[in-house]
């Protein structure tokens, strides 16, 4: 091995003067060799005329080489995206971590409202906050999402996501400020203010969830999986934090309120972190830049601002009219849309837990969230991933067997059976959601994948609202609000 280095060094010594006296490309080639070759084996070439200028010329050539490499790297990324040729991309794991955190931020604020429901029931005992706030939240989320789906191709994804996370942050902060300003004494004014903030949560959720899912639909499926795993983690995290804050402040004066305020402060911090991650670092990850460059080459205009933030300037090549319309995309993927809708309608069984007033309802919801989070990672195992359209629909329909199972278990069963049912409910919910969201966008162009992701999120939100509405009908039918 030593002789090999010596031979290569001798070759560099011999070829060095010729390279320096030749063209600029020869100089750059020689500079590349001395840059990557072990420094202890390379000797300075013997030159008679430019011996004193060798260090400066070498540094200059190295700088030129770095500039050429950078330009060629960006061009290779864009050309590979346009031609479909494989290219070595970096930062995939980092992007997955960022997607996980961004998914956490997309639902942690709303899950915080649901989790501190016991505090709001104490402050507003006659206003039924958990049901009223849900009804306020869902229509704003669905209405905003429907508008964004219609104008999806003209909406700047970067501005949309940043505005959404900023709205989450400010809204959660205002909940704390509003409670501190009124000393938590309740009243119709405070309740109306909370309803307005919850409506802002609905708008922010449509901004973030639709924008992120649409953006990730033309990237790696693992990014989509990480995003939804983070969303599920928000439920598990809020449940765990709520149990800890209740335990920490249980014996203190006004402990329920102190725990709720600490809980909201932690949620505000998470939302602020999401703003920083998305606005500064996420767009600059090489694999993310490559995926967005490919989508832009296929006619996706919503990624232009993100590419500009990453330092890639693209000229407008004119709109491409060969993409499928929203209606065509929906008809081709109607089974996926209905499957997502039915999966989230079946959240009715989660609502029934509150109706039956099961004494361990808070623990059961925590168990549901934990299994929902765990199941998000099952599709990463190739032989456990369900990609059949018929299989996904059959599994979705089979979940409705949970409805009579929950009814009879709550009426005749014990705690063990209830825990088992809740675990299966959370597990199937997370598994089917990730399976549909990672399989559906395959085979489409970037703009179509973006639109399809937004359409699926719309059906997801409508399904959640339908499940809540069915829970209300069940409650009204039993004579209790």
Overview of this protein structure:
It is a single chain. The protein is mainly alpha-helical. Helix 7 packs antiparallel against helix 10. The N and C termini lie far apart (82 Å).
Topology, element by element:
Elements: H1 2-21, H2 24-36, H3 54-83, H4 92-115, H5 117-123, H6 129-150, H7 157-182, H8 188-216, H9 221-249, H10 255-281, H11 286-297, H12 304-309, H13 326-332, H14 334-345, H15 348-356, H16 361-375, H17 389-398, H18 402-412, H19 415-439, H20 446-477
Helix pairs in contact: 1-2, 2-3, 3-11, 4-8, 4-9, 4-10, 6-8, 6-20, 7-8, 7-10, 8-20, 9-10, 9-16, 9-19, 14-17, 14-19, 14-20, 15-18, 15-20, 16-19, 18-19
Which key terms come to mind for this protein?
20 helices, single chain, mainly alpha, 481 residues, disordered N terminus
